[in-house]
Design brief:
This protein is an alpha/beta fold and 338 residues long. The protein is built from 4 helices and 17 strands. The longest helix is centred in the first third of the chain and has 27 residues, at 2-28. It binds 2-acetamido-2-deoxy-beta-D-glucopyranose (7 copies). Keywords: Glycoprotein, Leucine-rich repeat, Membrane, Receptor, Repeat, Signal, Transmembrane, Transmembrane helix.
Length: 338
Amino acid sequence: MGLNRFSSLAGTLMIYAMVLSESWWSCHGCLDEERSALLRIQSSFNYPIFLQSWGEVADCCSWEGVGCNFTTGRVVYLDLSGIREEGLGDLYLNVSLFRPFQELQSLHLSGNFIVGCVENEGFERLSGLDSLVELYLDENKFDNNILSSLGGLSSLISLSLSGNQLKGAISVDELNNLTSLQWLEFGGNEIESFKSIHGTGYDLLRLRNLEYLGLNPNHFNDSTLSSLKGLSSFKYLNIAYNQLKGSFNVTELDALINLESLDLAGNEIDKFVLSKDTRGFGNVSFISLSNSTSNGRALPFTLLQSLTKFPNLRTLYLDENNLEGSFGTTLDKGNLWY
Ligand SMILES: *[C@@H]1O[C@H](CO)[C@@H](O)[C@H](O)[C@H]1NC(C)=O
Ligand SMILES: *[C@@H]1O[C@H](CO)[C@@H](O)[C@H](O)[C@H]1NC(C)=O
Ligand SMILES: *[C@@H]1O[C@H](CO)[C@@H](O)[C@H](O)[C@H]1NC(C)=O
Ligand SMILES: *[C@@H]1O[C@H](CO)[C@@H](O)[C@H](O)[C@H]1NC(C)=O
Ligand SMILES: *[C@@H]1O[C@H](CO)[C@@H](O)[C@H](O)[C@H]1NC(C)=O
Ligand SMILES: *[C@@H]1O[C@H](CO)[C@@H](O)[C@H](O)[C@H]1NC(C)=O
Ligand SMILES: *[C@@H]1O[C@H](CO)[C@@H](O)[C@H](O)[C@H]1NC(C)=O
C-alpha cells in the first residue's frame, strides 16, 4: 500500500514536471524572443564549435554560457568568451543582436577576433539596457573608435578592454558619462594619454566612483599621468610596465587620498617627490617596484629612501631587481617586506 501511495505520488509529480516543462518552463524558462536572439548571435558568430549545442533543447536558459533569472525567466548573463577560433576570421559585431536581453547584467565577449562594430550597430544600441553592469571585451582588436560608443551604458560598474588596439591619446569624454563605473581595465594596449574635447587641463578623467584602473602595460609617462588627479575615490592603480621615468611627483596626485595599492613594476622611477603637506597616497599600503632595473641600471637608493614617506606602507615588492648587499638603516621601519 505504501508503495502504491508512493507511485501515485510519483505519478502526480511526473505530471507536474511535464506541465512545468511543457508550459511554464518553455514559456517562462526562456522567452521565445530571447531564444531566437541567441540563435541569431550563433549564426552571426559563424557557428563556432562551442555553440553547436545551442538549440538542441528548447530552454535556452540551459544552453552553455547562458544564465537566466529564474523568477523572470530572462537572460541576465551571457558568456561568449573565446568561442571563435582564428580560422573563422575577423568579426564586425552587430551589437543590436543583444538588445532583446532587457535584463542583461553581464556580457562577456573577450577573445573573439572582433575588429569593431557594424556601422550604426555599435554599443550605443545597448543604452536602454539599464541592468547592464559588466562588459568584458578583452583580447579583441577594438581600436580607439569603440570609446565613442560606450557613453550611453550608464549602469556599467565594470568595463574591460585589455589586450585590444587602443593607441596614442584616447578620448575620455564618453567614458566620463559612465558615472557608476568602479572598475576599468585598459591594460595591454598602447595608450599614451587621455584627452578631452574640453582641453587637457585639470580633471581629465572624472569617474567619481572609480576604484580600480588597470593600465599594465601601456605607454603612459610622467606628464600624461597627471590626468588621473581628479580620481579621489581611487583605491587601486596598476600602472606597471609603462614609461614612468625619474621623479614621481606625488604632490601632483594629491587628491588620491584613498589609494591603497600601487603597482609600478617595470618602470624606471628614481624617487617619489612629496612635500610635508602632501596628503595624496597617505593610505597606500602596497607598492610594487618589481623589475625596475631591466635596462641594466641599479635600483636607486633615493627611491628606497623616499618610500619612508608613506606612513601606511606595509608591503613592498622588490623582486627581479638584482638586489645585492645591504640597505643600511634608512629603511629600518620594521614593517617593510622585501
Ligand atoms: C530576478 O528577478 C526578480 C524580479 O525582477 C528580482 O526581484 C530578483 O532580484 C532577480 N534575481 C536576481 C538574482 O537578479
Ligand atoms: C543587426 O541586427 C539587428 C537585430 O537582429 C538587425 O535588425 C539588423 O538588420 C542588423 N544589422 C545589420 C547591418 O546586419
Ligand atoms: C551622457 O549622459 C547624459 C546624462 O545621463 C545623457 O543625457 C547623454 O545622452 C549621455 N551621452 C551618451 C553618448 O549617451
Ligand atoms: C609623454 O607623452 C606625451 C604623449 O605621448 C608626449 O607628448 C610627451 O612629450 C611625453 N613626455 C615625456 C617627458 O616624455
Ligand atoms: C609636483 O607637483 C606640484 C603640484 O602640481 C608642483 O607644485 C611641484 O612643483 C611639482 N614638483 C616637482 C619636483 O615637479
Ligand atoms: C585615508 O582615507 C580616509 C578615508 O577613507 C581619509 O579620511 C584619511 O584622511 C586617509 N588617510 C590619509 C593618511 O590620507
Ligand atoms: C622584466 O621587464 C622586462 C622588460 O620590460 C621584460 O622583458 C621581462 O619579461 C620582465 N620580467 C618579468 C619577470 O616580468
